[in-house]
Write a structure and sequence with these properties.
Length: about 200
């Protein structure tokens, strides 16, 4: 019996050794054999799969911040959605997954049509329990946006004012784009295209 167990042990050790990069990205928390994993196994319609995004509590803890952000990063790299919004890390070497960039394509039949808006998003240490801070880099005239620095007023944006830990960067960008189609914004006078805030 011991002779049969030894090869499997070596296999497990080899598998664990292949994870150093993920452990670094997750702050030393990639899980090896025998360790508990902070995610749940769910059916994906084809049998099984791991859901890293669900806000499931295990032993009184929320799903770790980095697992949520890694999935958001993967979605952004795949281009999930219709292409009207996109997002990614500001610096690919940012192991803290804190600073992000976003892009919104102005919706048709509005004063934002055919314009591309760049944004900066910061996901703090308490994300996703606490909403990210969002700032437009491209100048824009819209309710809820500070005209002097582009900061987004979280009280004026529904997805931020009613933030839940199941929301995402994508949801924030989509909500901002939806607000561009609201009657109070749809025909507002806009700054010359391409201008950016100085800070």
């Amino acid at each position: 019996i011991e002779e049969e167990a030894l090869p499997q042990q070596l296999v497990d050790q080899s598998e664990h050794a292949r994870r150093p990069r993920l452990r670094r990205r997750l702050g030393g928390n990639a899980h090896g054999p025998g360790e508990s994993a902070p995610w749940s196994r769910e059916s994906d319609g084809g049998g099984a799969g791991f859901s890293l995004r669900a806000p499931i509590k295990m032993s009184g803890c929320q799903v770790p911040r980095n697992f949520c952000l890694l999935e958001e990063l993967e979605d952004g790299q795949k281009g999930v959605g219709d292409g009207t919004v996109s997002w990614g890390l500001e610096d690919d070497e940012d192991m803290t997954l804190t600073r992000w960039t976003g892009m919104i394509i102005g919706p048709p039949r509005t004063c934002f049509e055919n314009r591309i808006y760049s944004l900066k998003i910061e996901c703090g240490s308490k994300y996703p329990e606490v909403a990210p801070t969002v700032r437009f880099v491209t100048k824009i005239n819209m309710n809820g946006i500070n005209n002097s620095n582009g900061m987004v007023d979280s009280r004026s944006i529904p997805v931020l004012s009613k933030w839940q830990n199941s929301y995402s960067i994508k949801a924030v960008l989509q909500d901002l784009r939806r607000m561009m189609t609201c009657k109070e914004n749809v025909k507002t006078s806009q700054p010359p295209e391409g201008q950016t805030y100085s800070n």
